[in-house]
């Protein structure tokens, strides 16, 4: 089998697909990736990767869409955006992907195309070549809704996927009609974990992470955590802080690090504060660690509200992050118990390797 994996041109969108791609490749099949921009810098484990958005820069596309649709941007920033801004933004990205993807599918002749929700151009390219497509969810939102939303700017009717693979645990809305798969966690890279972060410390350890997506509304909680950290009885580790924050001054209980595999660092941490992105949200749930999510643009508000609704974390805007809030995140037994319950659900989900045979059955 030859599998084509299609992701929107954003690093976090590709990393969610890599475990399944690696499992298919390990089973002896050919795997090819189609994506662009920041996703091209992701460590794919040596999988052949094609740029289907040559010259595209996400920040420029986002800026152009924002200038054309200022009301949609304002609604998105205030948490009232619905699907409008996502439709404009990912519609623009998929229009850039559409023709190169059709050409790539016709040239490579894959047996199956797997795409993430915000890359429905992959499904349309597959249909144009008479190839089946599979939708692989990459968050805790409804992937079929996202694919329909992003496809509205494209020509052609979005085909019904041959299968939908969900990474949502049951308590967060997984459909019984979908194929479950344990979600990707952490970062796909091979960076070493700095000394000490792989084992628990003498005090509670709080990780702080931010988005890989450039632009306004990223919901970076780093500065707010630094301001609240001095009175906190915990060690705070800032992951990839912006240069201005890393340069200090920082409280004595705050340290910084660059890229790290979060899936390796989370088990030894007590909790995490982050921007609310799908990858970090699912990774923290899989590790059974309480999390503070900043309700922000895109799916981040929904992620924050969903985690808070099951009791596994706190949805707190940046301006409301305080020493007391961080202390509760680190010490509240109810948050810890709820996070651990979700982690048990995720651990019971099939590993990516278990999806290889069901995919083969579709060819």
Automatic annotation (TrEMBL):
Residue stretches making up the Erythromycin biosynthesis protein CIII-like N-terminal domain: 23-140
Family to which the UniProt record says this protein belongs: Belongs to the glycosyltransferase 28 family.
Organism whose genome encodes this protein: Pseudonocardia petroleophila
Ranges in coiled-coil conformation: none
Single GO term (MF): glycosyltransferase activity
Keyword Glycosyltransferase among record annotations: yes
PANTHER family membership: STEROL 3-BETA-GLUCOSYLTRANSFERASE, STEROL 3-BETA-GLUCOSYLTRANSFERASE UGT80A2
Record's protein name: Glycosyltransferase
Gene3D superfamilies, alphabetized: Glycogen Phosphorylase B
UniProtKB keywords: Glycosyltransferase, Signal, Transferase
Residue span(s) of domain Erythromycin biosynthesis protein CIII-like C-terminal: 225-362
Span of the signal peptide: 1-21
Pfam family, one: EryCIII-like_C
Membrane-spanning residues: none
